User: Fold Phosphonate transport system ATP-binding protein from Paenibacillus shirakamiensis.
Amino acid sequence: MLTVNQMQKTIGSDPKKVLDGWNVHIHEGDMIGVVGPSGSGKSTLLRCLALRDSWTNGNFTLGGDVIIDGGGKGKRKFRSQFAYLEQNPELYPQKSALKNVLIGQAGQTDQFRRMIGMVRSDDYMGAMDELEKFGLLDKAHVKAAHLSGGEKQRVAICRALVHGANFIAVDEPVIGLDKFSAEKVLSTLRDLCKEQKKTVIAVLPLEYAEKYCTRLWGIYEGRLQWDVSGRRLTAEEKQFL
Assistant:
């Protein structure tokens, strides 16, 4: 279980609180939908939880392990367990889906080895296994530039898994996708939580969050307004959106 205690994020020389007073427990297998108005801090929340942005204050623990103590970006040894996927995943457009999965976020030496094609057989098989699970086996040797938006999202998910992620933060993964592609991406994420006990936190439109997520967080002006599980939002809760 991940525990967040008094997470705070401020920016600027005249500090503005972007996130303030977050106290939550995050369980294995949770699929959390984050909803809130534009500018409420959704993307910053994901980046902080995925150890991409520094915390101004607060504590972050995984079981008995301390990841962040009093602020900062988190201990380096934990970072491979946390993935952050942007709206438009950054892939190498002239490399195949398979090579994008293999290159991923490896260490500098391993990354160079993979970029020039020196790949261990177990790396290769692991990447192919993930692509197959997400219906991308026929796209393994297709250049990323020729993949659809939904396919790029799934390649990015495969890349995160191959490189050890157990926690995946996804920022608006369905923006710009048709309904079929959006549902495919969200089904993939939901299956990760159900079958592999991964933890997924995604910024989503409310209708998708209510349909696919086991838990909903409402964020307003940097604060957690509500945290609900197993039901749709009430009219009172929706007033913050």
